[in-house]
């Protein structure tokens, strides 16, 4: 999993952290991705957070320990439909 192809992978179960967001209270949220909808990620840490994808930048940690930053606007869309999307390089 790399920064270029993370949008085609399953995000549920990955460790996630909100790096930047338009709403200051969202910055710093970290935990594991519990659920993903078209516009939100549900992150479980010290409590359950529902974070909108389009207003935040996330850092995901893979099983290998690699950290990948992704702009949330690239993740907008149903998880099963993101696989079908064609992205410009």
From TrEMBL:
It holds the Pfam family RNase_P-MRP_p29. One of its GO terms (cellular component) is cytoplasm. The keyword Ribosomal protein does not apply. SMART domains: POP4. Belongs to the eukaryotic/archaeal RNase P protein component 1 family. Signal peptide: none annotated. Gene3D superfamilies: Ribonuclease P/MRP, subunit p29. This is Ribonuclease P protein component 1. Keywords: Cytoplasm, Endonuclease, Hydrolase, Nuclease, tRNA processing. Part of ribonuclease P, a protein complex that generates mature tRNA molecules by cleaving their 5'-ends. Consists of a catalytic RNA component and at least 4-5 protein subunits. It comes from the Archaea.
């Amino acid at each position: 999993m790399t920064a270029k192809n993370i949008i085609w992978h399953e995000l549920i179960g990955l460790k996630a952290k909100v790096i930047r967001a338009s709403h200051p209270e969202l910055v710093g949220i970290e935990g594991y991705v519990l659920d993903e909808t078209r516009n939100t990620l549900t992150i479980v840490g010290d409590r359950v957070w529902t974070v909108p994808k389009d207003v935040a930048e996330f850092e995901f940690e893979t099983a290998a320990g690699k950290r990948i930053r992704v702009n949330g606007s690239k993740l907008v869309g149903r998880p099963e439909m993101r696989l079908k999307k064609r992205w410009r390089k």
